[in-house]
Amino acid sequence: MTAIILSCIAIVVAIIAAGFTGKQAMAVTSDDHRKRAPKYEVTMRSAASNQQTIAIYNLKMVSDQPIDCVSIPQPSVRVADGRIFPLSITGQSIPKEGIVNFGPLRIGDSERLSLEVGGNVSLPDFELVITSTYKRGRLYRRESWTGIYPLPDPRIEPDAN
Fold first, then answer.
1. What is the dihedral of CA 76, 85, 109, 107, to 10 degrees?
2. Which of 7, 102, 122, 160 is the most buried (most CB within 10 A)?
3. 130: Cβ–Cβ under 8 A, 6 or more apart, which residues?
């Protein structure tokens, strides 16, 4: 009888230990995932003055995590009159589904993005929600990261350096 009670206690302790170990492994994996998150630098390349309708930005990869695919939906801004501000890769048409996709990117790689802001209108603050996806190898599942990057004011010319 004592052996059965001790066995039951050992099983309960093993289950608790396994659960704790699983939570620790998830925390380590999650922390590792966050540390490998790609980082971007968004700079103004060409502002849209009152006569121009398109601002051009440069999106540069500044981290060492390679990326297979970058997805950026249209900037979501709240404007009372319901205007939208289409985003595209510079020199390409505006994507019909509203999401700009490109890649792969390595450290130092960049992409030019065009934001149509119209002329002679007041503009809201813009942010890009960038989702980056990377697959380590054939046997690994894809990893994704999402980050928010504010855009410089589309009406202010960048400093000439």
1. -10
2. 102
3. 40, 59, 70, 71, 72, 146, 147, 148, 149
